[in-house]
Amino acid sequence: MVSQAARAGDSAKKGAANRKVKLSVRNLTIRYGDVVALNNANLDIYENEVMGVIGPANSGKTSFLNAINRMSDMRSNMTVEGEITFNGVNIRDWRNVYALRSRIGVVFPLPVGLPMTIYDNVTLSPRLRGITDKRVLDETVERCLTRAALWDEVKDRLNHLGSMLSGGQQQRLTIARALSQDPDLLMLDEFSIAVDPVTTMRIEDVLKELKSQMTIILVTNLVQQANRLADRTSFFLNGEHVETGETEALFEGRTQDQRTRDYIEGRFG
Amino acid sequence: MSDITAATTAEAAGDRLDKNWMIDKGLQALMFICGFSAIIFVLGIFIFVFKEGAEFVAHKMDFAEFFFSPKWRPTSLSNPTYGILALIAGTAAITALSMAICLPFSLGAAVFIGEFAKGKTREYLKILIELLAAIPSVVWGFIGLAIMNPFIIKTFDVPIGLNVLNSSLILALMAAPIVTSLAEDALKAVPDAYREAAEALGATRWQMIYKVIIPAAKNGLLSAALLGVGRAFGETMAVLMASGHSINMPTSMFDSVRALTATIAAELGETPVGSDHYQALFAIGIFLFIITFVINLAADLIVRGVRKG
Ligand SMILES: Nc1ncnc2c1ncn2[C@@H]1O[C@H](COP(=O)(O)OP(=O)(O)O)[C@@H](O)[C@H]1O
Ligand SMILES: [Mg+2]
Q: CB within 8 A of B297, min separation 6: which ones?
């Protein structure tokens, strides 16, 4: 409760007017063949805020994230209409999609420790961008693993396989790997689905720390997680962006749409 | 609680009359017989080859001569010698060159089919490759004789086109289908999550393939390569026809050579059963058997390594 009060004060200080828009979404429609995964969504995400995205399965949350970093380019059946503007530039106008993706960190629902050493997992992104200086890479590994709250557990076995870590550790490894990109935007897709509660809490603490340095989109299947972490929260339902509002307001029942309230209060299939 | 127990006991008592149960048992017995007879056959061949070659190996064979002399003169009346070094060199040269051609090509094909080709293209390519695997080896040998031979003579201006190069090209084409399809299986076994993770990190297609997918599939790829080696090594008819079949320590890829397998195929029919020559051919058979066994075992162990890790 204390933290909520602090957060409310925080956002009041910022003031709605001078918030900088990090990501703006206009008339976004995503289809798989004829199936509409997201229909005409409009929302803005501000710099250094945590935007929670909640909603039942198949609401279009994952599709939304995939449209943002243009993972849709690789999927032949996925079409994206409308405009997504990231850092003031339409993502379609990004000179190369790989540069766009390297600005955006992604954490998947199931931890993906790539089958290489822990060290190589964390340095993959810098190495892809051509960094070979061992000192820089060493420094990146320590910094990112520390920020992901994993350094102490793995610092003595950086040359062990990343895919051999426990689920919770792999998820933190994934976060460290995402941080190695120095992303402006971090997108997490139901990161706690395969992670124990203690690790979930540790990762939540990590996210609170990261918030001051980057914008975070937190898709979550746990509404209380959105309540704990998100400044604002969006509710998606069956491919519809129902509403976006201050998390506190939504959780106090001040929703624009009855369905949001029902979902948050758990009266929903 | 007791009701459930009673019902279960009743079923248990009646199960022997159940039709499904009988079919199941019948099929199990059939599978057992099939599996068992396969083992018997392999063991039978093994024992036969060893029995025929054993006397030569144990009593008549001079190990140093056998492995280190390039003089294979089994039909000499005055002084027959049984040195297989030239045959080993022939087989090794053909196998090595054919793999040097086949492996990069097959890996490229597998990557293209597995990672780039989509829908119809992919299906057609797979069918084409399987078709390639179905061509009998004698047809390949014929291609070596009738097409590659004059082609090599003309292109490289050499006196004879039946040589290491010719048989290596033929063998590369013969091994390519299995290596490609096994390599593609290995690539397909890499979870999509790895691809997505690499993409999300900003990796390009190529970076994803050589930094993530190929390392992740390396055991499967290695075992595909080993099975390709086994295929090239054990091939007989095509090599017999395309290699020139003359005993030579090869110094260039335009030299005619003779392979271990081709030697057995060409000579076994013309030797009196039980003669030294006959037994020496079986000794070569034992040698081939052991090497093939080692190659397959290695491939198998490598794949097992994949499953564990
Ligand atoms: N690769 C795909 N191919 C076809 N349909 C898909 C694909 N991915 C998602 N969908 C469909 O799009 C809709 C939204 O899915 P998704 O974005 O995964 O929702 P969420 O993440 O909220 O569960 C669902 O109806 C789902 O069946
Ligand atoms: Mg999802």
A: none
